[in-house]
Amino acid sequence: MPATIIVTADTARGAKLVKFGRESPFARELQRRADGYFADTQQQERGLAAMARKTAVIWAWFLLSWVALVLLPGAWWLKVPLAVSMGLAIAGIGMGVMHDANHGAWSRNAHVNRWVGYSIDCMGASSFIWRTKHNTLHHTWTNIGGLDDDLELGVLSRMSPHQRWLPAHRAQHLYMWALYALLLPKWVLFDDFYNIALGRVGPLPLPKLAARDWLVLLSGKALHVTLAFVVPLSLYPWYQVIPLYFLVCAVTGVTLATTFQMAHCVTTAEMVAAPADGRLTDDWATHQLRTTVDFAPENKLLNWYMGGLNFQVVHHLFPKVCHMHYPALAKLVAATARDHGLNYRVQPQLRGALASHYVWLRTMGARPVV
């Protein structure tokens, strides 16, 4: 289990810091049991052959979808299911390949993790910026207002009771699904450049990009534009290419956004206000139990496709462990939490998790009672 990440005043540039309480008996016992699991089973935490095979399958899915969609002849309406397939494949690369790699959980070799982590750059988004936004901000200060940048959507949405309410938010349970559909083009064509220009991601400064980082970032953007626009527009009229591009993006965006929202922005996850003195009573591991929810743990298809992100509690507690271990580790988390009188939150069904997120959007969109 990772140590709590504490950001210093120097690196935060005046951002309001939140520190966690001392490591709890729950955290120590969970670490002991997890160590015992790997010792007893003689399995590696990462670097699994099954993970390499899965990566090959998902990448083959993406490449075959693109070839069939763009290069093979066929009526435009036959391209629609191929666009859906490609969108699901892109989301699969994000959840099942690059996510583990950029957490250091794909391989035991840091260089291999970095190269596999470039999968997200091949889709047009920056792995460099994502690691600051996701690994540091979201994983450290999960669901803490003003620090977890995944909650911060500006005036478009109110995801936490600690955010400002606007009258337009009354309809967010309806319009947010359309905005989720625009996640990929917004991320690729705007967000990364905005963070670079701002020099920050949320409350944290963005580390300086080295020449290699710039090369990877710009090459990824160029590849995205080439695959999405340059090649297709050389073969088909724009009025066929553009709608299919947005269909691919919509499938990708809705899949990715709802997967993460069902774990954190739901009625059973807690939202935490940053304390005035900058100190929380809970330790980091207990905080993850309070602010994160697993869903559909018995759905083997989702477990495979989502890269274990339906075991989001387990992922937050063991981000550097390959997601193929999550079903086994979930049993350890549940038992250890129970033994220490803590609530391990699990939504049994996918539809229940979706409904819970819908209710949360509607609840946060209602005018707050003063």
Defining traits:
2% strand, single chain, globular, two-stranded parallel ribbon, 370 residues, mainly alpha, 4 strands, 60% helix
- The residue ranges in which pLDDT falls below 50 over 5 or more consecutive positions are 1-15
- Total count of strands: 4
Form type: globular
- Rg is 21 Å
Write down the overall mean pLDDT: 91
Describe the strand arrangement of the main beta sheet, using strand numbers: 1-2
Number of helices: 16
Oligomer: single chain
- Secondary-structure element pattern, one letter each: HHHHHHHHHEEHHHEHHHEH
Terminus-to-terminus distance: 41 Å
Number of domains: 1
Helix content: 55-70%
Largest sheet entry = 2 strands, antiparallel
Tell me the strand percentage band: under 5%
Structural class: mainly alpha
Concise account of the structure shown:
The chain contains 16 helices and 4 strands.
Please tell me about this protein's structure:
The protein has 370 residues and is mostly helical. The chain has a two-stranded antiparallel sheet with strand order 1-2. The protein is globular. The chain starts with 8 loop residues before the first helix and ends in a 5-residue tail after the last helix. The model is unreliable at 1-15 (pLDDT under 50). It is built from 16 helices and four strands.
